[in-house]
Design a protein that fits this description.
mainly beta, Jelly Rolls
Length: 675
């Protein structure tokens, strides 16, 4: 084995090479079965004392294994050439692992209160593989993250056994935690087809559920004496649960929450330590002294068969995990002799496909067209045939086209598009670009759903690791418009007075020196925001400060300045004087004391907007596009030095606000927009 060193930049340099290990085949006498003629064989030999735990197959077309006592991650494409990544912190105890929504390996560090991530990042000029390891600390120490799951929404869910919490890393990287009952000690974790997260509560002998809205439900197991441990979902949607020190399995219907318990009838093992959906569509069980499987039927487990494991599995020490492999094989980590064991099946109907979306969700988009790169990955080492891609669209989203799939291969139903992709060769992927069009909805915050799923032709089936679904929320936040024909919403505006006009549309207010604002709260992640509005400057605004030319008294009184101000959050954008009298200058479009310009320069319309019989009022159009990431947004308007008794007033109209996620622009200020 080639051991590698992690430098202080958290980069690992290694050469994927190593000594050839002797592959020992164990063929226990009397363990040949009539149906499959199966044998248990040693698949890979690990360093002594490493205590292997979780095993996954994925990036680099490699197997990835956690060494709970070795404080390392082992990976290999073939079992005779292993490479090892030593973790940063001693005694991190990597426990469970999963291939995440980003096509990367994620794992829990049970003794380090952290999640780990592994990336393959190309080769050096000399051909060495670059491996990047990142760690993400949980909100507090002592969290002991246990088992981990990839959710349909693209986040990572994990149990925190001693902390009595369920952890969640959102697609945007935010860490959240959900508290469960005191002493619950959540352990195994899975999900149903509707995106609910399910988990076992070892300490309270119950099953827990967190729905997509974050609501917690806890269901006591009827008559439970023993504690629930591992949990999986089968291809029909049922959840299966194991018990500590008990040779029974539990089946839960997520839709009805009906719980059933079945005796397995093992003659070799007193209890089971792990459970998995097999490559043959059966449920497989890893016992203390045997490995077995049964058919899934409506009435429960049928046709249970088993074969002996020697040496036996240690129960309660480390972790022995059972998984479906990519080569029509079932594998398990053996915590008693530091090996990975394999059972090779003659064929497999399972094809491990993953949907990868290159954009992080939730996205925030303006109305109009947007694009989504979609990659379908075949992690299996067999071809996936008759693959189809289904898009389920919200009622205000339509599919424009999918580049990479002929139009005639797509069938459009109501809010659903089903496209035939065809065959995806072993260990390869298929890529397409979907273009959608979102119609504008006149609401403040609008959530739109967009779901991707992949399916196979008759005879084959998918695993239940959620990699085949991506349900995403696209938030069109601040798609706001108000022309004040009806009202100014109290939840947004500080002032709500609507003023009619005989010569202009209804406007917000007839203000003087008041401080008026519009505020949007609780915004989702975003990069930029746009706000546009029309300003009506009405009455005898005098522009810049000057001596009154009509005065006959001494000293000559000073007139002005008549100023209007606009802020976005705490950023001052406009502090300018305006003039409606041709004999007086104004600073706009410059700020006050920075310009002297003719009256009404930059206005877009002249008229009698205050209905006083004098055509001397001006309308100015403003539009700002600003970089913005705060969770609230406030725009403030007010006048300075205005004499309302002399008709110096202003109004606002046609306010538009939009928010953008990953837009293309940098700081930009456009004080005047031509109409």
């Amino acid at each position: 084995m080639k051991r590698v060193r992690v430098d202080n930049k958290k980069t690992v340099w290694l050469r994927i090479a190593g000594i050839v290990l002797l592959l020992i085949l164990l063929v226990p006498a009397g363990m040949t079965l009539a149906q499959y003629s199966l044998i248990i064989e040693t698949f890979a030999v690990l360093p002594p004392g490493s205590l292997p735990g979780a095993l996954v197959y994925g990036p680099g077309h490699s197997y990835w294994l956690s060494q709970m006592e070795g404080n390392a991650i082992t990976f290999f494409q073939e079992p005779d050439a292993l490479s090892e990544l030593t973790l940063f912190n001693e005694n991190s105890k990597p426990y469970d692992a999963v291939v995440g929504p980003d096509k990367l390996v994620w794992f829990t560090e049970n003794q380090n209160s952290s999640l780990g991530k592994i990336e393959l990042d190309g080769l050096t000029p000399t051909g060495e593989q670059i491996v990047l390891i990142s760690e993400y600390e949980l909100p507090a120490s002592g969290r002991d993250p246990n088992q981990i799951l990839f959710g349909q929404e693209g986040g990572l869910w994990f149990t925190e056994f001693n902390a009595n919490k369920i952890g969640f890393r959102t697609p945007s990287g935010e860490m959240k935690e959900y508290a469960v009952s005191a002493g619950a000690r959540p352990m195994g974790i899975s999900s149903d087809q509707n995106g609910n997260i399910w988990f076992t509560e070892w300490g309270t002998k119950a099953i827990g559920k967190i729905n997509p809205e974050g609501e917690l439900v806890e269901i006591p197991i009827p008559g439970a004496i023993f504690r629930p441990t591992e949990m999986i979902r089968d291809q029909y949607g049922y959840l299966w649960v194991l018990f500590d020190n008990l040779g029974k399995v539990l089946r839960l219907n997520p839709a009805t929450q009906i719980i059933e318990t079945f005796e397995i009838g093992s003659k070799l093992s007193s209890s089971f330590v792990d459970i998995a959906l097999g490559v043959d569509g059966k449920i497989w069980l890893l016992g203390t002294e045997s490995i077995g499987w049964f058919d899934i039927t409506d009435s429960g487990p049928q046709n249970f068969e088993e074969m002996e494991i020697n040496p036996k599995i240690f129960e309660g020490e480390g972790r022995a995990q059972l998984v479906a492999g990519p080569d029509s094989n079932m594998l398990f980590t053996h915590n008693n002799n530091d090996t990975i064991a394999q059972i090779q099946l003659p064929n497999s109907g399972m094809r491990d496909l993953q949907i990868f979306l290159d954009k992080q969700y939730p996205q925030v988009l303006a109305a109009g067209e947007f694009h989504q790169n979609v990659e379908l990955i075949n992690w299996s080492r067999q071809d996936a045939e008759d693959v189809s891609l289904t898009l389920e669209l919200d009622e205000n989203i339509e599919l424009v086209e999918i580049q990479g799939i002929p139009e005639e291969d797509c069938k459009i139903e109501t809010q659903k598009v089903i496209c035939l992709v065809g065959n995806i060769p072993a260990s390869s992927s298929f890529e397409a670009i979907a273009t959608f069009r979102a119609s504008r909805i006149p609401d403040y915050i609008v959530e739109r759903s967009l779901a991707f799923s992949v399916d196979l032709g008759a005879g084959d089936y998918l695993p239940t690791n959620n990699r085949q679904f991506r349900t995403v929320n696209i938030r069109q936040s601040i798609d706001y418009f108000n022309n004040f024909a009806v009202e100014a919403e109290q939840e947004y505006w500080s002032h709500t007075q609507i003023t009619p006009s005989e010569t202009a549309s209804e406007t917000l207010g007839r203000f003087s020196n008041e401080n008026v604002s519009i505020t949007f709260e609780n915004l989702p992640p975003h990069d930029e925001i746009t706000i546009c509005f029309q300003l009506y400057v009405m009455g005898d605004w005098d522009g810049n400060q000057f001596k009154d030319p009509d005065s006959i008294t001494e000293p000559v009184p000073t007139i002005g300045p008549d100023i209007w101000v606009n802020y976005i959050d705490n950023n001052r954008l406009v502090v300018a004087s305006f003039s409606n009298q041709p004999q007086f200058l104004q600073s706009f479009p410059d700020n006050y004391r920075e310009g002297e310009h003719p009256a009404q320069l930059g206005s877009r319309a002249i008229g009698d907007f205050d209905s006083d019989g004098v055509i001397n009022d001006a309308r100015y159009d403003f539009c700002y596009l600003r970089k913005h990431q705060q969770n609230s947004f406030k725009t403030t308007f007010y006048g300075v030095n205005l004499a309302s008794d002399q008709g110096e007033t202003w109004s606002i109209d046609n306010v538009k606000a939009k928010i953008y996620y990953h837009a293309l622009y940098d700081w930009l200020y456009m004080p005047i927009i031509s109409q």
